[in-house]
Every structure is written in structure tokens, then in C-alpha cells.
């Protein structure tokens, strides 16, 4: 009984952490869509305060020069660090950019507090995973993988915070934002896998797998990750164009997007078809009452919602409120796909014919 209670405690806290992490992804999308990424020019404080100011009058008259200089010093350290670890090409790329001549944006109370709330929620997620790591110690002798995975997620959260400081220091340098996002997806994947791995101790959830379906879902996850990467690149272009237009004249933004936007849009058709085929195969193999089928049906529905949101952005001037939803739904899709993979990886039964 005590064992079941500990397993349920770990599973429930994992679910709380997972939900919190997804909310953080949504909040991060709001930060980007509102152009609030530089609402706090320093890290971990915000304009030197743990609770940020609400008026520019609360800051020194030369605050822009102060934080520009601080970021400039940190950027030079980043370049030296990359060179030390022999990332010479990347260091050279950063060195040739405008990083060393960093500047600071004008104070905007709304953007400052949006970014501050994003950071505050990130801290809460960090503490949640820290608590989860302590809970996971119980599994050390029962299932070492659960304990190691949980501490890996804790390490990735710390790394995520450090990458976040670099994102701020380099003034939202594009590839750092992409790394920041994929680290969040990696943490989500680890938490989902551990939930199913722990739950198998206390439940007889249908865990049936086939090599064909296992390979199929892996392909779908890879395609989804690649599509998110393309979407991130498109988003980087949108950010650049938005800054050029000072976040106005949104109806003109699409016209300035490159070929990667059309590749991203075209691949979505292939992804829709393959996910429908997977759902059909699951229906034949396991029936409509199986857990895998229900999860697959849900991420297929979300995929169509994702495409609809993409259409709204493409033909209705990229509404700001749709951008974070588009990212959030994409993260939900790959999370649900990873749930199916986690079920298969924790299965003992093998279905030979599909």
C-alpha cells in the first residue's frame, strides 16, 4: 500500500509539473508575440530589481547605457567561452555580429511585467521539478531509470535557465531561442516517459506494441520536431520583420517571409496524412477503446487545429493572440505522440500482425 501511495505521489506531482511546463510554453509564446523578450534587459534580476519597476522614473537616467554595458561584457565572456571549448565557428559568428556593441531598449512597463511573470513562472516550474527529484529518490533501488531521468530533467531545467540568460544577453539571438524551446520539449518528453514508466507499477493499462507501429510513431515524432524547427525559423523571420515595422502593419509581414515559410506550410499536409494513417493502423490493431487509439485521435484533432491556426496567421495578418496558441498546440501534439511512444517502450506484450 505504501509503495502504491509513493508511486501515485510521484505520478501526480509529475502531472502537475508537466501541466506547469506546458503553461510556461504558452506564456513564453505570449512573450514572443508581444515582443516582450527584452522587457528585462538583465538576468536573473529585472532592471536590477527582484520586483521590477512600473515607471521609467524609477530607473537611473542613463539606464540604457548601464544595461547595454552589462550585456556587452557578458557577450564578450560568452564568445571567449565558446572559443575555449573550440566552438570557433560559432564564436566567430557571434564576434562578427553586433553583440559586442549591445544596446538596451526603452523601458516599457507592460513588456517588462510580461517577461517578469514569464521568469517567475519558470522559477515555480524549477522548484516543482526539484521537489519531483526528491520524490524520485524513493525509486533508486526499484527503478533507477526513473530517478536518473528525473535528475536529468532537473539538470535540463537549470541549463534552460542559463540559456535563458544568454537569450537576454544576446538580445534574442535567433538560434538561442530555438535551443531554449527544444530544451523545454526535451523536459516534457522525459516527464511523460517517467509518468508511464511509474504508472505501470500500479495499473494494468493496456500496453501492447508492434515494431511497425513503434517505428511509425518514432517517424511521426521526428517529423513533428522538424516541423517545429521550421516553425521556429519562420518565427525568427517574423520577429525580425516585426521589429523592422515596429510591431505595426501586421498585414505586410507575410509578404517578407522567405521560402522556409512555404516549406513549413507544405510539410504540414504530409504530416496530416501520415498521422491519419497511423490512427487507421491503431484502429485496426487495437480498436477504438484502446488508450493508444484515444491519444492518437486527440493529437490528430489537435493537428487539424494547428493547421487552422496556421491558416489564420497566414491570411489574417498574423494576429498576436494566435502565435502563442500555434506554438502551444504544436507542443501538445508532440507531447501526445511521445505519450504513445512511452506506452510502447514500457510494454511487455508484442503484437505481431498490424
Structure report:
- This protein has 354 residues and is mostly helical.
- The chain has two domains: 1-203, no CATH class; 206-354, no CATH class.
- The chain is built from ten helices and two strands; from the N terminus they run ααααααβααααβ.
- It is globular and about 65 Å long.
- The chain starts with a helix and ends with a strand.
Shape: globular
Our measurement of the CA-to-CA distance between the termini, rounded to an integer number of angstroms, reads 38 Å
Major sheet summary line: 2 strands, parallel
Structural class: mainly alpha
Report the total helices.
10
Tags for this model:
mainly alpha; 10 helices; 2 strands; about 70% helix; disordered C terminus
Task: Summarize the topology.
Blueprint: H1 2-33, H2 63-84, H3 88-96, H4 109-136, H5 144-169, H6 174-199, E1 208-209, H7 211-244, H8 259-286, H9 291-315, H10 322-345, E2 349-350
Parallel strand pairs: 1-2
Helix pairs in contact: 1-4, 1-6, 1-10, 2-3, 4-5, 5-6, 6-7, 6-10, 7-8, 7-10, 8-9, 9-10
Short description:
The protein has about 350 residues and is mainly α. It has helices spanning about 1-35, 65-85, 90-95, 110-135, 145-170, 175-200, 210-245, 260-285, 290-315, 320-345, and strands at about 210, 350. Helices cover about 70% and strands about 0% of the residues.
Amino acid at each position: 500500500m505504501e509503495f502504491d501511495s509513493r508511486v501515485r505521489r510521484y505520478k501526480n506531482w509529475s502531472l502537475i509539473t508537466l501541466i506547469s511546463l506546458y503553461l510556461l510554453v504558452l506564456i513564453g509564446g505570449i512573450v514572443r508575440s508581444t515582443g516582450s523578450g527584452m522587457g528585462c534587459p538583465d538576468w536573473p534580476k529585472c532592471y536590477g530589481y527582484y520586483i521590477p519597476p512600473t515607471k521609467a522614473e524609477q530607473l537611473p537616467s542613463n539606464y540604457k547605457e548601464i544595461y547595454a554595458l552589462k550585456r556587452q561584457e557578458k557577450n564578450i565572456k560568452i564568445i571567449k567561452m565558446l572559443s575555449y571549448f573550440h566552438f570557433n565557428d560559432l564564436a566567430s559568428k557571434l564576434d562578427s555580429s553586433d553583440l559586442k556593441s549591445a544596446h538596451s531598449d526603452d523601458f516599457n512597463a507592460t513588456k517588462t511585467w510580461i517577461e517578469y511573470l514569464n521568469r517567475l513562472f519558470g522559477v515555480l516550474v524549477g522548484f516543482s521539478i526539484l521537489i519531483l527529484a526528491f520524490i524520485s529518490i524513493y525509486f533508486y533501488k526499484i527503478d533507477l531509470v526513473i530517478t536518473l531521468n528525473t535528475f536529468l530533467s532537473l539538470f535540463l531545467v537549470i541549463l534552460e535557465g542559463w540559456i535563458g540568460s544568454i537569450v537576454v544577453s544576446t538580445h534574442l539571438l535567433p538560434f538561442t531561442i530555438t535551443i531554449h524551446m527544444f530544451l523545454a520539449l526535451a523536459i516534457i518528453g522525459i516527464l511523460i516517459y517517467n509518468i508511464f514508466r511509474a504508472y505501470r507499477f500500479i495499473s494494468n493499462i493496456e500496453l501492447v506494441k508492434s515494431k511497425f507501429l513503434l517505428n511509425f510513431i518514432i517517424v511521426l515524432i521526428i517529423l513533428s520536431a522538424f516541423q517545429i524547427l521550421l516553425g521556429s525559423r519562420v518565427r525568427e523571420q517574423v520577429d525580425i520583420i516585426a521589429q523592422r515595422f515596429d510591431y505595426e502593419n501586421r498585414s505586410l509581414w507575410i509578404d517578407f517571409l522567405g521560402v522556409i515559410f512555404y516549406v513549413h506550410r507544405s510539410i504540414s499536409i504530409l504530416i496530416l496524412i501520415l498521422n491519419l494513417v497511423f490512427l487507421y493502423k491503431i484502429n485496426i490493431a487495437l480498436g477504438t477503446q484502446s488508450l493508444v487509439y484515444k491519444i492518437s485521435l486527440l493529437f490528430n484533432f489537435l493537428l487539424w487545429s494547428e493547421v487552422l491556426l496556421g491558416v489564420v496567421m497566414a491570411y489574417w495578418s498574423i494576429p498576436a493572440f494566435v502565435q502563442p496558441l500555434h506554438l502551444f498546440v504544436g507542443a501538445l501534439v508532440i507531447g501526445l505522440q511521445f505519450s504513445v511512444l512511452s506506452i510502447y517502450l514500457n510494454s511487455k506484450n508484442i503484437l505481431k500482425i498490424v
